[in-house]
Design a protein that fits this description.
Strand order of the largest sheet of chain B: 4-3-5-6
Strand content of chain B: 5-15%
Strand order of the largest sheet of chain A: 1-2-3-5-4
Number of strands of chain A: 8
Largest interface: A-B, 36 and 28 residues
CATH architecture of the largest domain in chain A: Up-down Bundle
Number of domains of chain A: 2
CATH topology of the largest domain in chain A: de novo design (two linked rop proteins)
Oligomer: heterodimer
Number of domains of chain B: 2
Number of strands of chain B: 6
Bound molecules: zinc ion
Radius of gyration of chain B: 22 Å
Order of helices and strands of chain A: EEEEEHHHEEEHHH
Distance between the termini of chain B: 79 Å
Shape of chain B: globular
Number of helices of chain B: 8
Strand content of chain A: 15-25%
Distance between the termini of chain A: 56 Å
Chain lengths: ~240, ~200
């Protein structure tokens, strides 16, 4: 076989989502450590006897090889890496939520090695029964940070003045926290303690957990540009029961 | 050369089939028209007939010509068991295995949040209504894909909230399967879900 110039071997990767493609193939959106989000065609992956059929599972660490010089590349081989228990129950829905965020916010072919490692760490936490709400908050914060929209949690917007746990602030999108005053009706009202807790990923305080969720939701909605997250609806429906 | 409009319409119509692109649709159209006209006519008639006469069974949601399908009317089936499957093909597999005498509910799909298919799109309210019609155990036989698992979890939560007993079919090595030839994921999960053997 001719050696491909545009060939990549044994890349650590996760499947974010796959779609049926042509008669028997799959189009797989993967998140690879070295190359970020990459679309791959898995030829024949929907045939009953396909070797990769059972392998290309979401949330499982894989080692993938692919080739091609166009946007959509061709999967050559996939290997199971193991060590990640299958996500079950609500943790599985949380996994879908992570993937929906990544698919909506991460552009193709833009490497994010640290985010990849944090994603893997988050899946481990979910699989081992960690508190789901705080696990998601931590991931959301790291995601925005990696994509260049880091939250300003320790200092007031546009100043070096540290956030005071005892004060109230208003968090304004793309600016940060400003002290609560009569003439600043914009932004989301948050306690200084919430911001400092978020800086250290500590959601043990019920108010920090609640306000942290509101703040992350406001920021994510802004970056999603009004796009609705289906998994958020599903998790909301389920936890209402 | 310009394609006649009726041929163009046929090619466009064939493209509604999953996995059929413009090339395959064209090939199918030429085959039907050139090689086997009687078959083409039969296809057209049976398609029209099926679309007109088939609807969803009021009980199991499978395709049926009657309000309630034959299987759901059968007195020989055990109405204390209700098995939930994704597709009609899964129901047929269950029947072939001859391991189950209960009733069915066919979802006609699965939850797939990343494709925008949620509880509403899947009409899970109809399943809940069906499960509450009479006391029964619900057996979840959705696929062991991530979507199938999510669907099973969602339905279990829905039904547990209504006090319905729910179970999930087990997964593991295939019968007659050898460890050497089984895929890593199946083996890993089988080890995780191992059970005690009484000595
Ligand atoms: Zn029926």
């Amino acid at each position: 076989m001719q050696a491909h110039k545009n060939r990549l071997e044994d890349e650590p990767a996760f499947v974010l989502h796959s779609y049926p493609f042509r008669e028997t193939s799959l189009l797989v959106e993967v998140f690879s450590r070295q190359h970020g989000r990459v679309p791959l065609v898995a030829r024949g992956a929907r045939r009953p006897k396909s070797a990769v059929r059972g392998l290309l599972m979401n949330f499982q660490p894989l080692s993938l090889s692919w080739f091609g010089k166009h946007e959509v590349r061709t999967l050559h081989s996939a290997e199971w890496q193991g060590g990640q228990p299958l996500l079950q129950g609500t943790a599985l829905l949380c996994g879908f939520y992570l993937n929906e965020l990544l698919l909506n916010l991460m552009v193709r072919d833009d490497p994010h090695e640290q985010l990849f490692d944090y994603y893997q760490h988050t899946l481990q936490r979910l699989a081992h029964g960690a508190d789901m709400a705080s696990t998601l908050r931590c991931f959301e914060k790291h995601l925005l940070q990696e994509l260049g929209y880091a939250l300003l949690l320790e200092h007031e917007a546009g100043s070096a003045r540290p956030i005071d746990a005892a004060l109230s602030y208003r968090y304004i999108v793309e600016r940060g926290a400003v002290r609560e005053q009569a003439d600043t009706p914009d932004g989301l009202l948050v306690a200084g303690k919430t911001l400092l807790d978020m800086a250290t990923d500590d959601y043990t305080d019920a108010q920090s957990a609640r306000q942290g969720k509101q703040l992350m939701r406001m920021l994510l909605n802004h970056h999603l540009g009004g796009k609705l997250l289906h998994t958020r609806e599903l998790i909301k429906d389920l936890t209402k029961l | 050369m310009k394609t006649p409009s009726s041929l163009e319409a046929l090619i466009a119509a064939l493209r509604v089939l999953p996995g059929v692109g413009p090339k395959s649709a064209q090939r199918m159209a030429y085959h039907l028209l050139q090689r086997d006209k009687p078959a083409a006519l039969r296809l057209a008639q049976s398609l029209a007939h099926a679309v007109e006469t088939l609807h969803h069974c009021a009980k199991c949601n499978n395709f049926s010509e009657e309000e309630v399908c034959e299987m759901c009317r059968s007195a020989r089936r055990d109405s204390s068991l209700l098995c939930v499957v994704e597709m009609p093909a899964d129901l047929l597999m269950m029947e072939q295995a001859q391991c189950y005498q209960g009733m069915y509910f066919v979802l006609m799909g699965r939850l797939s949040p990343l494709d925008g298919i949620g509880a509403r799109e899947l009409h899970l309210d109809r399943l809940v209504k069906r499960a509450l019609e009479q006391p029964c155990e619900v057996i979840l036989a959705t696929n062991f894909t991530v979507e199938g698992e999510a669907t099973a979890h969602y339905i279990a939560t829905l039904l547990n909230a209504q006090g319905v007993k729910v179970s999930r079919i087990a997964r593991g090595l295939p019968v007659g399967g050898e460890l050497e030839h089984v895929d890593s994921g199946t083996l890993a999960q089988a080890v995780l879900e191992r059970r005690e053997v009484a000595g």
